[in-house]
Known about the structure:
By secondary structure, the protein is an alpha+beta fold. The chain has one domain. The chain has 3 helices and 7 strands; from the N terminus they run βββββββααα. The termini are far apart.
Amino acid sequence: MDELKFYVDRLAEGKEERLTLDLAPDFISVSEEELKFCDTVTVSLRVYVASDDLIIHFSLETQVTQACAICNEMFSHKLLIDDSCYTKSLSSIRGRVYDSSNCLREAILLELSSVVECCDGHCPERKYVEKYLTLSGTGNGEEVDGVQPFKDLDFPLN
Length: 158
């Protein structure tokens, strides 16, 4: 993906590059049944050299299709990364050309939540699993059923 490659020599003497791009989601390289990127990824980048590092400031936005943790139906939601920063040592950049697609891919994958719920967190099927999600007796002085290996610790776990 050539539009995400930066030539370090062009960024000498305080120069910077600013880009706003709409990218196909191919560079994310995810082929999972329960995780799909189908929409374009809108990226704003500011790249410059500071001391001995390449600095990449970026924001991005895309749509992610994931399976709901409650009903297991696929749904789309927005993924937004606002004003993130990535640094790369100049000495580790081979050929003085840096492809930023990997740092964007990593940021996207790290930002994903492994547990998502459709309908903005109000899945209609939640009522059927609610009894399995709460512990009876918590917070009102009653004992919780089952083994509690940490109940005798001297410090609070909150």
